[in-house]
TrEMBL record:
<comment type="similarity">
    <text>Belongs to the ABC-4 integral membrane protein family. LolC/E subfamily.</text>
</comment>
<feature type="transmembrane region" description="Helical">
    <location>
        <begin position="291"/>
        <end position="313"/>
    </location>
</feature>
<protein>
    <recommendedName>
        <fullName>ABC transporter permease</fullName>
    </recommendedName>
</protein>
<feature type="transmembrane region" description="Helical">
    <location>
        <begin position="333"/>
        <end position="359"/>
    </location>
</feature>
<feature type="transmembrane region" description="Helical">
    <location>
        <begin position="366"/>
        <end position="384"/>
    </location>
</feature>
<dbReference type="GO" id="GO:0098797">
    <property type="term" value="C:plasma membrane protein complex"/>
</dbReference>
<dbReference type="GO" id="GO:0042953">
    <property type="term" value="P:lipoprotein transport"/>
</dbReference>
<feature type="domain" description="ABC3 transporter permease C-terminal">
    <location>
        <begin position="292"/>
        <end position="415"/>
    </location>
</feature>
<feature type="transmembrane region" description="Helical">
    <location>
        <begin position="390"/>
        <end position="408"/>
    </location>
</feature>
<keyword id="KW-0813">Transport</keyword>
<dbReference type="Pfam" id="PF12704">
    <property type="entry name" value="MacB_PCD"/>
</dbReference>
<dbReference type="Pfam" id="PF02687">
    <property type="entry name" value="FtsX"/>
</dbReference>
<dbReference type="InterPro" id="IPR051447">
    <property type="entry name" value="Lipoprotein-release_system"/>
</dbReference>
<dbReference type="GO" id="GO:0044874">
    <property type="term" value="P:lipoprotein localization to outer membrane"/>
</dbReference>
<keyword id="KW-1133">Transmembrane helix</keyword>
<dbReference type="InterPro" id="IPR011925">
    <property type="entry name" value="LolCE_TM"/>
</dbReference>
<keyword id="KW-0472">Membrane</keyword>
Amino acid sequence: MNLPISLQIGLRYSKAAKDGKFISFISFFSMAGIALGVLALILVMSVMDGFEGILKERILGAVPHVIIQAKNDSSNKTSIPKSEKDAALKVKQFNAVTKNAPFNAQIIQVLPLVQSVAIMQLPSDLKGVMAQGISGDDSIPLGVTNHLVQGSWSEFLDFKYGVVVGQYLAMEYGLGIGDKVRLMISGTSHYTPIGRMPSQRTFTIVGMFQTESEIDEQLVFVRSQDLNRLMKKPPNDNAGIRLVLNDAFLANDVAQKLAEYYPAENYKIENWHDTHGKLFDAVKMEKTMMWFMLSLIICVAAFNIVSALVMMVTKKQNEVAILKTLGMTQNTISNIFIVQGAYNGILGALFGGGLGAFLTLNLNGFMNATGLNFLGVAGVGLPIDFSWMKLFYIVSLAIVLALLASIYPAKKASQLMPADVLRYE
């Protein structure tokens, strides 16, 4: 196969020469630096994506992604569904709203909103919690449906004044199934012989859930009718609707789209960013900084390519001058050294990408085999979310940086004047 002359010469220059061992040494380490940077970037980003995915699943699975409430002075309260059946009918309407949006968001669950901040009186302490109401099998949030570790949802729904608490909360305060706790709602109160007292009621623990996140200590579930009675409201009343999305990170986009159909003067639209946004913003910033710092490894390796090519141009200037006297154009001369820089960049990026993918996909197996445990918990591996698309982006970034690093030495080589170089030959 007849290759272009610039490609043939560039590949030949890329191979080690007898009198160019130092240049070959620098080229090797520039290639190794690119490979190391690509490997580290793939490995770290996959682990951090895994941690973010676990936080997303465990924390955002139990909280409402979007909440729509009618304002007190709104005349459109009738458009807020008042039962699970009415809420289910709203799914098609909401998905129709977001179907043509420039993001792939779907609302997979629409539930009536019955919740209140409450104080839980425990045997030895008081604990602030968020009490959420569940009125039936269809109103159990998808994020906690399969996270019940003790008890059952059917038993909970049949038990009057029963409560489901997080397992971490129960372990911290020594609670068990059948124990009594008292819930107090500060927003509602009633008069007693000793003065005005917050509305309160004794509840029985009938179940425990576990999401392995801070939600286990902050959230409790009670029946909607019981919570409404505690808040001095009709049993079937609700404050609005709560939406569960297929991707919680699209909550802002969905809320903005829904605002076009639910005007701010009549409705209040909130999403999980209002309560848990700072945590995920911190995780996002940390990922960005790690991406930036690890990308510097690839940039430093690219600078090594510049150094190696500048020395190569100096070493090969006589040959370049002869090639130009034979009629080779400046573009062809430039392409020779760009090929040499690209050779190091492509080999380093592909080797680092392949090794990074292999180590990432087998990291937990390697840790088990060697006895390493970075989390300090026996039998628990690192959460890994490997993406072939991100692998492609990282490898492409390394190749592009190698090509950019080759431009300056290649331009210098193309500007060599044969008369000046061969004057004393």
